Each structure stands twice: as C-alpha cells, then as structure tokens.
C-alpha cells in the first residue's frame, strides 16, 4: 500500500527541560487506512495530530506528508491541503455565519475559482449529509451536525487524509454515531485515509488499526483484534478495553470480539458447546 | 433575555431591497444620512421620511420589528430631545427655576428626535435586509481602495465576519454561565449599581477566559484550512450589480441628492 505520512524518530517538547510530548515516534500511515490513536490524558495524542499537517514540527526527526517535509515552509499549503485536521470543539472551528460559507473557507483561501468552489462545497456537504442545511446558521445546528460541517470544511480541500482530534468528545451518543458513520462512509466510498484520536474504545474497535501512545511513545500498534486482546498491557497504560472484549474475557474466553454481533456469536458458540 | 438583542440581526426575505447588491444599500444609506443631516425644514424632513417609509414598505419588514430594535436606543433619543428642549435659547413659553422652555426648543427637540429615529431605523433597514456576510463583504469591497494606503481592509472584514459568527455563541454562553451562577445563589438583579456590577465579575471572568480559548482554537482551525491572509483569496459568492440595482441606485441617488440640496439651500421654501 501507498505510504502517505511518515514519522521518523520524531521528538518534540513544548518547553525546554520538560518531559517530551513525543519521544522517538516512528510511524507510517498508508493510503486508505483507518487509524485510531489511543492513550491516557497527556500521552501525546494531540501533539501527534498537530504534527500531521505541520501545525507543529519535530524538534528532531522528520515528518513527511507525500514525501514533503513538514519543516519546508514553502510546501506548507500543499501539506495542509493533503491533510485536513478537525478538532474537538465544533463551535471553535466554524468561521463563517452560514454553513456553506464555512465549508468554502479553505477553498477561498486556496484561491479556487468561484464556480469550482460552489461545486466542491456542495459535494462536500452532500458527502457528510448536510446539503439541505447549507444556508443555515451554524449556531443553530446540533453538535453532531456542527461537527459534520467541520468535517465538510476539511473535506472540501479534497484531502488524502482526514485527521481528527477527539471529534466526538463533546457530542452526545446520537452525534457520536452520526460522526462515526460519516467518517467510515468517507473511508469506504471515497477512500479517504482516516486518523482519529479518541477516548472511546468502541470507536477504536471500528477502525482497521489501533495505535496506543504512552508518555510520548508508541506502545502498541496493530489491528484492534490484536491490540485489545492484550487487556493486561492496556490496563497498565491506563486504558480499558471495549465492553465486548471485557465481557468475553470476563467469561474466560481467549478472544477479542469487536462488535456486539461478533461477541454474541462467540458467546453463543462457546456455551452451546458445553 | 439576552436573546432579545436584535443588533445585527437579519430577517431573510425576497423583496427588491433584500435582493439589492449590498454595496448599493450601503451607498444609499450613506446618502440618506447625508440628506437627513442636511434637512432643516419640515418639508425636507417629510421628504426624507417618505423615502424611508417607501423603503420599509417595499422591504416588507414589519414596522413592529423596527420599533423593537429601536427600544434599546430610545433612551438616547429621549435624552437628546430633553436636552434640546431646555438648552435652546428663545422667547420662554414656560419658565421655572433656572429652566426656560421656548417654542424653538420644542421644535428642535421634535426634529432632533425624528432625525435620530430615522437614522437608527435606516441603519436597521440595512442590517435587517442584508445577510451579515454580504454586508461585511460589501464594506470590504467599498473600502478596498484603502488597501493601497496600507489599511488592513481584508483583516477588518475578517474580524467583522468572525465577530458576527461568535456573537450568538457567546450570548448563549453568557446565558449558560448566568444560569449556573444563579443556581449557586448569585443575584444579578437586585442591589445598587455597585453591587450589581460586582455580581457581574463571576460572570465576566469565565466569559473572557472562554473567549480567549475560543480565539486560540479558531486561529489554529483557520490555519489548518490554509488561511494565510487576504492575498490571492477568492470568494464563492460574487456580488453582482444587476440592471434592477442600477435603476434603484440612480433613482435613489437622484431623490436623495435633490433632498440634500433642498435641505441645504432652503430654496423656495419660505
Ligand atoms: N500548549 C502546550 N504547552 C505546554 N505543554 C503542553 C501543551 N500542550 C500539551 N502539553 C503537554 O504535552 C504533553 C502531551 O499533551 P497532548 O495534548 O499531546 O496529550 P493528549 O494525549 O492529547 O491528552 P488529552 O487526552 O488530554 O487530550 C502533556 O504532558 C501536556 O501537558
Ligand atoms: Mg488531546
């Protein structure tokens, strides 16, 4: 698979002398992947996310996006366009007073001709299922809808990677569901590579790959089935496992079911045997 | 209660005035204010008032909405009128203690109040019929020649857009903090001015902290979306002058400049 983003021994600290927020991170993100980044508070997840599009640049080591070094300021706009970054609080990342104006913001900054902006804005809004709200005022929308508008704003740039730092943290379960479904559909239908920082284990379980951070280091990295089967290790890193995994392991089964159906099936099989 | 603030509010509609290029509305407002300030006779006042009434009628904005928006300004209008009643010299009609009220004073007060009311209503007519985004856009375009003088026009327009975007959010937040403080026994409504001002401190501190955090987040989010100032920027929505716009502009300009000249020279009005 094509490698889009590459971290090479990346180290970063916010203040001199303080513990590094990233400490020797080496990581490759390939086209079409969905990557969940887990870790307890202060483990460096947000710092990692801000490295993805050059908002922060490494103190040592390199981050390359499609072969472009994020330290190269002349390529910064290209890099930002390749990696759309969405944050936790939807209220604080919507710039304009009308939904469609906000989605157009990035394209206007990039100097795209007006008719093309119109087309791409409509396409992005359709992709997140918000086309009918295009003339609404953002502050009247629900949290999940606002976050989908924020995603459309990134999506309009036609990025290869959609990176999100706890996009569902401020949403209710319904909003969380909307956002997760949208993101997964974008990955499936549009082939957008997804990197998402999250605290929700069941959201991580929906991704194809899970990266666990601890004190600035990558501790675990692999498919969710593998990562979540190591419950002991996760616990020592201050994390829990998805409820389905916890249930299976509480029943003494040696498996890590990721969805409720999988879990039910596993339990059914196990207990119908005896 | 905070939700009642209509400042900068926009009532969507489809009248000629709603459709008009916002640059034209701005120019006409400017001319209207000039004509209004030049008016010095009942007839010219009537002319200006007629123009305003016509605009209100055409826009289908309910006069009630105009009056509602006017309410917070009422104090200024009354205050100015009262000052004029007492401070205009002339033959006193009534006089008590150190105050003299002259016929001239009453006349002036009436015209002053009219002038202010019309000025405020006309400004509201602009904000009620123009989406804020078009308004700040139009302002930026009209002022764009100033950019040559190194005046940061784009930055001002951006500031205005962001302010308009965040006013409702911050009002909502104020309401939320107020309710939270009230639930803890805070009292914003009783006591003298000093006590009430003091009661606002626990409201203002979190509000300011919140606003700065928002500004910080927003700056990062804008950077993520390739914002790098006004250079090379395009706009999705273009402003277009139509034939209809041109006709309204010409008509409006003729009327208003006629009124201005009449007001200034006072020709043939005894
Ligand atoms: N702006 C900053 N200035 C100084 N130190 C910071 C700053 N931002 C983060 N840090 C520190 O860097 C470390 C990593 O922070 P980071 O925000 O990346 O963690 P995180 O995994 O995103 O945590 P959370 O789950 O709370 O969002 C923490 O020790 C934090 O205190
Ligand atoms: Mg974080």
Task: Write a concise synopsis of the structure shown.
With 274 residues, chain A is α/β, with parallel strands linked by helices. Chain A has eleven helices and ten strands. In chain A, helix 3 packs parallel to helix 5 and helix 5 packs parallel to helix 6.
What does this structure look like?
The complex is a heterodimer of chains A (274) and B (270). Chain A has helices at 45-52, 76-82, 99-109, 114-127, 143-155, 173-190, 201-205, 224-228, 231-236, 243-250, 260-273, and strands spanning 3-12, 22-30, 34-38, 60-65, 68-69, 83-86, 161-165, 193-197, 209-214, 217-222. In chain A, the strands form 2 sheets. In chain A, strands 6-7-8-3-9-10 form a 6-stranded mixed sheet, with helices on both faces. A 4-stranded antiparallel sheet of chain A has the order 2-1-4-5, covered by helices on one side. Chain A is built from 11 helices and 10 strands. With 274 residues, chain A is α/β, with parallel strands linked by helices. In chain A, α3 runs parallel beside α5, α4 packs across α5 (143-155) and α10 (243-250) packs parallel to α11. Chain A has one domain: P-loop containing nucleotide triphosphate hydrolases (Rossmann fold, 3-Layer(aba) Sandwich). In chain A, β9 (209-214) and β10 form a beta hairpin. With 270 residues, chain B is mainly alpha-helical. Chain B folds into 2 domains: 1-130 and 241-270, no CATH class; 132-239, no CATH class. Chain B is built from 10 helices and 2 strands, in the order αααααββααααα. In chain B, strands 1-2 form a two-stranded antiparallel ribbon. Bound molecules: adenosine-5'-triphosphate (ATP) and magnesium ion (MG). Magnesium ion binds at residues 45-46, 165 of chain A.
Task: Give the tally of β-strands of chain A.
Answer: 10
Strand order of the largest sheet of chain B: 1-2
Largest sheet of chain B: 2 strands, antiparallel
Give me the side-by-side strand order of the main sheet of chain A: 6-7-8-3-9-10
- List the bound ligands: adenosine-5'-triphosphate, magnesium ion
- Uncertain stretches of 5 or more adjacent residues of chain A: none
Globally, the shape of chain A reads globular
Structural class of chain B: mainly alpha
Structural class of chain A: alpha/beta
Mean pLDDT of chain A: 91
Radius of gyration of chain A: 20 Å
Give Rg of chain B in angstroms. Answer: 23 Å
Distance between the ends of chain A? 44 Å
Mean pLDDT figure of chain B:
83
What is the chain-wise order of helices and strands of chain B? HHHHHEEHHHHH
| Number of discrete helical segments of chain A | 11
Helicity of chain A, as a percent range: 25-40%
Percent of residues in β-strands of chain A = 15-25%
């Amino acid at each position: 698979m094509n490698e889009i983003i590459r971290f090479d021994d990346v180290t970063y600290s916010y203040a001199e002398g303080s513990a590094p927020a990233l400490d020797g991170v080496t990581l490759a993100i390939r086209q079409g992947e969905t990557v969940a980044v887990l870790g307890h508070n202060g483990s460096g997840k947000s710092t990692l996310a801000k490295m993805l599009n050059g908002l922060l640049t490494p103190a040592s080591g390199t981050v390359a996006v499609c072969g472009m070094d994020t330290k190269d300021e002349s390529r910064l706009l290209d890099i930002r366009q390749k990696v759309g970054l969405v944050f936790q609080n939807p209220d604080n990342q919507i710039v304009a007073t009308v939904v469609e104006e906000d989605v157009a913001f990035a394209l206007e900054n990039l100097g795209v001709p007006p008719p093309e902006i119109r087309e791409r804005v409509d396409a992005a809004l359709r992709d997140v299922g918000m086309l009918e709200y295009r003339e609404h005022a953002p502050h009247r929308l629900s949290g999940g809808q606002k976050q989908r508008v924020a995603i459309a704003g990134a999506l309009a740039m036609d990025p290869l990677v959609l990176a999100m730092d706890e996009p569902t943290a401020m949403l209710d379960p319904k909003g969380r569901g909307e956002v997760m479904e949208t993101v997964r559909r974008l990955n499936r239908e549009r082939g957008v590579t997804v990197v998402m920082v999250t605290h929700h284990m069941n959201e991580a379980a929906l991704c194809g790959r899970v990266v666990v951070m601890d004190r600035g280091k990558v501790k675990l990295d692999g498919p969710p089935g593998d990562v979540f089967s190591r419950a002991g290790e996760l616990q020592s890193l201050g994390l829990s496992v998805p409820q389905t995994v916890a249930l299976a392991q509480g029943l003494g089964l040696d498996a890590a079911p990721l969805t409720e159906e999988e879990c039910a099936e596993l339990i059914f099989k196990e207990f119908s045997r005896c | 209660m905070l939700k009642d603030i209509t400042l900068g509010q926009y009532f969507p509609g489809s009248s000629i005035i709603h459709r008009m290029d916002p640059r034209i509305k701005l120019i006409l407002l400017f001319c209207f204010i000039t004509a209004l300030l030049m008016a010095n006779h009942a007839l010219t006042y009537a002319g200006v008032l007629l123009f305003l009434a016509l605009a209100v009628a055409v826009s289908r904005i309910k006069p009630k909405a105009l009056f509602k928006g006017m309410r917070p300004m009422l104090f200024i209008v009354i205050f100015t009128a009262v000052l004029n009643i007492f401070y205009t010299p002339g033959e006193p009609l009534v006089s008590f203690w150190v105050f003299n009220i002259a016929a001239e004073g009453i006349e002036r007060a009436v015209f002053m109040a009219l002038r202010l009311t019309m000025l405020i209503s006309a400004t509201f007519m602009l904000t009620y019929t123009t989406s804020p985004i078009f308004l700040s856009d139009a302002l930026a375009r009209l002022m764009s020649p100033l950019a040559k003088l190194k005046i940061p026009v784009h930055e001002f327009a951006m500031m205005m857009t962001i302010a308009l975007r965040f006013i409702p959010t911050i009002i909502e937040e104020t309401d939320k903090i107020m309710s939270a403080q009230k639930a803890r026994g805070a009292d914003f409504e009783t006591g003298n001015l000093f006590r009430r001002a003091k009661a606002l401190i626990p409201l203002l501190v979190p509000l300011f902290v919140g606003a700065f955090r928002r500004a910080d987040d927003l700056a990062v989010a804008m950077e993520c979306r390739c914002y790098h100032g006004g250079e090379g920027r395009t706009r999705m929505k273009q402003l277009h002058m139509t034939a209809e716009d041109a006709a309204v502009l010409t008509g409006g300009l003729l009327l208003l400049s006629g009124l201005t000249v009449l007001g200034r020279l006072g020709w043939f009005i005894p």
